[in-house]
């Protein structure tokens, strides 16, 4: 049997196109060929279990070998093999009709993964790194003859009688000059560790030396000898393929260390295991969060039947859970490419919803069963919960019962508990409930103390997501608004009907306002004279709550760029009932008036961290002179 022919792709030569346009992602050739070998191996096991193959299965491992001198890489298996007719069907007929269609569709493709998968080029990814590819194969079918196929990177192939004497397939790649990096052991090991680490069939890559017990010495102590054994690079039965009832906490923690050897232990985990209406397994871990959130993203690995696909899982995992770590495995996630790139459809949406529900149920269970432990973990898990609370209505419906608010006294409350706590003192004259918060307790301490002195509680809102969380709370909570504690003086944060009387005359009020306007001399600071408690500070500098919040969102890239470009404008609240302001109103010397006003204003700036540079130096000098 000897035959020559042309691969049915109706184009002059597809291989220069493959080599040119797919070069940036060449390592996936090994994933594709090893995965094909695993598929062939699993098929023979399946046929045997169904009684459709009665021969000896033998050693079913897949082997990857390389010869640096001969410049070859060989992938071999003991799977179902192929007949010559099957080679013609599966190898020679690429799944598209012509070069025109290929080039037209290629325009939409983003990288090598997408092109290879979309056009059924899994096997042909070998030509990204090889000048010549040979196949030796023998089908499991009774009476089948071994077959041989070779192609040198043109559209011409040769097919003939093979040399294999045992069932299976052996693919040999003759590596081209540009791809000799793949003839290094460490490079092949790196690719196999990435893509084949949890394949369900043993993958052999060379041998390794192990010490085994070999009798005892004269003193009765065990002796050891070194032996060469197969280097099996994968765990064929990883944790997510097992039932949760089979596993202990140590198993989950050991697996986490395998995936992330330099990370701290996770807080807890969720085992996913569902087979209807879709098939999904996996383990998701809640890590201890660090400040650099971007460094912690893309730590969930997506598998399909234990073949690693990608760590870009944003279509499957809700955005607010992208900081979780772990693995997800589902054969039901549709791929518009060969084992790569997700295609959003109803299954993906169902899986997304399922994961959201599982996470919400797990958090609700932790909160209910051990609230103290839940509160201790809140600094780590609060970001997940708040993000989900904001971005996913279904998650919000569950999370509203276990999202926590923390105050400056390190107390924590559910939403209902906090409402009951502050409603008596923090309801204004319009029956609006006002929650006060700080995003920097140290910097805003004087404002917090003023609020506490009036019997008000102050929440701590200092996580990266709290600006959005605050706005969402106002949308969801009836007749409730949130104000930053330094957005106004304490007397005005929660407006009551019992404002103190003004002690200054109208003439004195006008004089004081003129003195401060002149002493400050900046149009971005608007002076207002208010009737406040004599115990409040003489001067307070604040920024309007709405404007400040818009600027904070703009700084986080929240689509408020217009506000971010506006100059900072502040309100200067002068307490007309403070004894210092009375002194200024009664002072005859304009020089003393100005000095006292500037000193009071600078003190207000200092309390907000707004006094810097030369103005801070001048303030210190003036303070020394006043002493």
Automatic annotation (TrEMBL):
UniProt: ATP binding residues: 32, 36, 77, 82, 97-98, 169, 339
The UniProt entry, under InterPro entries, shows: HATPase_C_sf, HATPase_dom, HSP90_C, Hsp90_fam, Hsp90_N, Ribosomal_Su5_D2-typ_SF
Q: Which CDD domains match?
A: HATPase_Hsp90-like
- Key words of the record: ATP-binding, Chaperone, Cytoplasm, Nucleotide-binding, Stress response
Domain called Histidine kinase/HSP90-like ATPase: residue spans: 25-179
**One annotated GO molecular function:** ATP binding
Q: The organism sits in which domain of life?
A: Bacteria
Annotated signal sequence range: none
Family in the record: Belongs to the heat shock protein 90 family.
What name does UniProt use for this protein? Chaperone protein HtpG
Q: Please tell me the species this chain comes from.
A: Mucilaginibacter auburnensis
Q: What is the lineage of its organism?
A: Bacteria, Pseudomonadati, Bacteroidota, Sphingobacteriia, Sphingobacteriales
């Amino acid at each position: 049997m000897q035959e020559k022919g042309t691969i049915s792709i109706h184009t002059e030569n597809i291989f220069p196109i493959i080599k040119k346009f797919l070069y940036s992602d060449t390592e996936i050739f090994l994933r594709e060929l090893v995965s094909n070998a695993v598929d062939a191996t699993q098929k023979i096991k399946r046929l045997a279990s169904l009684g459709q193959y009665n021969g000896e299965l033998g050693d079913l491992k897949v082997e990857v070998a390389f010869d640096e001198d001969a410049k070859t890489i060989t992938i071999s298996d003991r799977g179902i093999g192929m007949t010559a007719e099957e080679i013609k069907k599966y190898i020679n007929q690429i799944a598209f009709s012509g070069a025109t269609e290929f080039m037209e569709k290629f325009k939409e493709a983003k990288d090598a993964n997408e092109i290879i998968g979309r056009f059924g080029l899994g096997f042909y990814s070998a030509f990204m790194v090889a000048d010549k590819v040979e196949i030796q194969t023998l089908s499991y079918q009774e009476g089948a003859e071994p077959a041989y196929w070779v192609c040198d990177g043109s559209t011409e192939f040769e097919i003939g009688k093979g040399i294999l004497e045992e069932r299976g397939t052996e693919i040999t790649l003759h590596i081209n000059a540009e791809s000799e990096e793949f003839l290094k052991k460490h490079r092949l090991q790196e690719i196999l560790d990435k893509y084949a680490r949890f394949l369900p069939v043993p993958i052999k890559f060379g041998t390794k030396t192990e010490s085994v017990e070999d009798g005892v010495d004269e003193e009765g102590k065990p002796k050891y000898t070194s032996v060469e054994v197969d280097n099996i690079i994968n765990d064929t039965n990883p944790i997510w393929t097992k039932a949760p009832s089979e596993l202990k906490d140590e198993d989950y923690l050991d697996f986490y260390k395998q995936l992330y050897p330099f990370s701290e232990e996770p807080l807890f985990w969720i085992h996913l295991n569902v087979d209807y209406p879709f098939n999904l397994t996996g383990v998701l871990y809640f890590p201890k969060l660090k400040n650099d959130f971007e460094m912690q993203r893309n730590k969930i690995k997506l598998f399909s039947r234990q073949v690693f696909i990608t760590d870009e899982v944003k279509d499957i995992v809700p955005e607010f859970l992208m900081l979780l770590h772990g693995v997800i495995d589902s054969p039901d996630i549709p791929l518009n490419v060969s084992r790569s790139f997700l295609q959003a459809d109803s299954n993906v949406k169902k899986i997304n919803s399922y994961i959201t529900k599982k996470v919400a149920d797990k958090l609700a269970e932790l909160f209910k069963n051990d609230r103290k432990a839940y509160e201790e973990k809140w600094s780590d898990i609060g970001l997940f919960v708040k993000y989900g609370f904001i971005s996913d209505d279904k998650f919000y419906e569950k999370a509203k019962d276990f999202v926590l608010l923390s105050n400056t006294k390190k107390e924590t409350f559910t939403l209902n508990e906090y409402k009951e706590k502050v409603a008596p003192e923090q309801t204004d004259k319009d029956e609006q409930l006002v929650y006060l918060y700080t995003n920097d307790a140290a910097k805003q301490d004087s404002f917090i103390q003023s609020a506490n002195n009036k019997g008000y509680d102050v929440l701590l809102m200092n996580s990266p997501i709290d600006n959005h969380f605050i706005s969402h709370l106002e949308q969801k909570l009836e007749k409730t608004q949130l104000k930053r504690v330094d957005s106004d003086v304490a007397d005005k944060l929660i407006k009551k009907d019992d404002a103190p009387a003004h002690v200054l005359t109208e003439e004195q009020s006008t004089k004081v306002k003129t003195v401060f306007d002149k002493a400050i001399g900046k149009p971005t600071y608007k002076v207002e004279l208010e009737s406040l408690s004599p115990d409040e500070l003489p001067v307070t500098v604040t920024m309007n709550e709405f404007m400040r919040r818009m600027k904070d969102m703009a700084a986080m890239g929240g689509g408020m760029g217009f506000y971010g470009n506006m100059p900072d404008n502040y309100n200067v609240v002068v307490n007309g009932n403070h004894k210092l302001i009375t002194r200024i109103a009664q002072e005859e010397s304009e020089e003393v008036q100005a000095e006292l006003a500037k000193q009071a204003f600078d003190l207000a700036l200092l309390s907000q961290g707004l006094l810097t540079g030369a103005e801070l130096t001048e303030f210190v000098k003036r303070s020394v002179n006043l002493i």
